Structure formats: C-alpha cells, structure tokens
Amino acid sequence: MTETSGAARRTRLIGAMCGARPRLRWSILALLIAVVLVSFAIRLAVDVPNIVTGTVPGPDAFEQRYALHPAAAYLHMVPGVVYLLGAPLQLSRRFRSQHLRAHRRLGRVVLAAGLITGVAAIVVGVWFPYGGTLEASGAVVFGAWFLAALVLAYRAVRRRDIARHRRFMIRAFAVGLAVGTTRVWVGLFQAVGLLAIQNNAGTQWFGVAFWFALVMHAVLAEAYLAARPTVIGRTNLATS
Ligand code: HEM
User: Fold this and answer.
1) Model-level pTM?
2) Cβ atoms 168, 149 nearer than 8 A
C-alpha cells in the first residue's frame, strides 16, 4: 500500500466518523459522558470514606493520591462534571434556538466550570500523575489547549462572532470529552496486560492512554470543523 493511499484511507475514515448521523454522534457522546460519570462515581465511593475517616491508603494504591490531595482532585472533578453535563446542552442547536436566554445564563456557569477544571487538570496532572511524565505532559498540553479554546470562544462571543464562538466551544468540548475515551484506552491496556493498576505495573501506559485519547479527540474535532466550513463573522446565536 502506498503512503498516499494510506493517508487517503485515514482521511476517509475520519470523514466517515465525523459525518456520522447526528443521532449516532449524540449516542457516542452520551456513552462517553456516562463513562466519565461512572469513573467519578467510583472516585466518590472510594475517596469519600477515606477523606471522612482520614484514612490514607498505602503508597501502591491508585487512590492514595486522591486521599492525600482531595482539594485539588475535587476542584478538578466536580466542575469537570458540571462542564461535561452542561456543554452538550449549550451545543444543541435546538436548545439555543428555543431558549437563547437560558443558553446565555448557563453559558456563564459552564464556562466558569470549564476554566476551573482546566486549571485544576494541569495542577493535578503535574503534581501527582499516576502515569508519570507522559500523563503530566498530556495534561499540560491539552489542559492549555482546552483553556485556550474556552477563552477564545468567550472572546469571540463578546465580539458577536458567533461562528467562531461555536467552533472554539466544539474544540474545547472535544478535549473535555476525551476524558471518557482515556478510560476506554486504560481498560484496553489493562485487558491486554500492558497496564495493571492493581499492582502498579506499566503505569506509563496510563500516560499513553491520555495522549491517544486527547490527540484522537483534537484531530476528530478539527476534521469535523474542516468538513463544515463556516463564514467567520457576525451570525445569529440561535441558529448558528
Ligand atoms: C472537562 C471535563 C472533565 C471531567 C468531567 C474530568 C473528570 C475526571 C475524573 C472523574 C478524574 C478521576 C479519574 C479516575 O479516577 O478514573 C479525572 C482525573 C484527571 N483528569 Fe480530568 N476531567 C475533565 C477534563 C480534563 C482535562 C481537559 C484534562 C487535561 C487534559 C484532565 C486531566 C486529568 C488528570 C491529569 C487526572 C488525574 C488522573 C490520575 O493520575 O489519577 N481532565 N478527571
């Protein structure tokens, strides 16, 4: 197979994934959000008893870091869940067109939640990464990308450039949602024996899972946007 035909196949595959029917896209999105909600619920079930009783699991336990640094960890996770639940509503054209005022109000809450979770993601990723340097670098690169996309989206809407606002919000959401795909990669690496969280083997694969998921989501977002070029400039918030 030539390099060109390989590249063409990759482009077709990405195009097909991005061009998936809206219902299929929303289903994948709901599934990934569910994955994140389940990991958050597991965190709560494990961490709350530790935090309440002051118990710190042994150094080999995955959850030790969450018991030692609950403030930073929950400053990341709680606003992250608020962001991840609010953002799909904000991106829904139907919601915008029917409830524009609610879109504006909720937008402030979702934006603030996104900014807090993004800053805390970098702190958590650098301070106590399970997956070492790979995880830390992924958290810095994509945490910064997530924050930059949110800030640029906000600046655009202040200038009434709704098309640009929407495009940067899609970029931010794609990166936020990658958290769900990270867990899918972690599960796969565990299934094939590259990573074993129960005995801390292959922890670097946790970092690889971060990079795979984040790069994949950032690329898919760009492909999705490239397939839908919009005239950048003043547009209607309710219909764009
Ligand atoms: C926007 C929505 C987000 C939500 C709802 C969210 C949620 C979570 C949850 C539930 C955990 C705990 C993981 C577990 O125990 O399985 C976590 C950890 C983490 N998240 Fe996020 N997150 C979000 C965005 C991000 C972003 C954009 C980044 C940066 C790229 C990031 C970086 C991290 C890091 C570095 C950890 C620590 C993983 C570890 O070493 O244990 N998160 N997040």
Assistant:
1) 0.89
2) yes
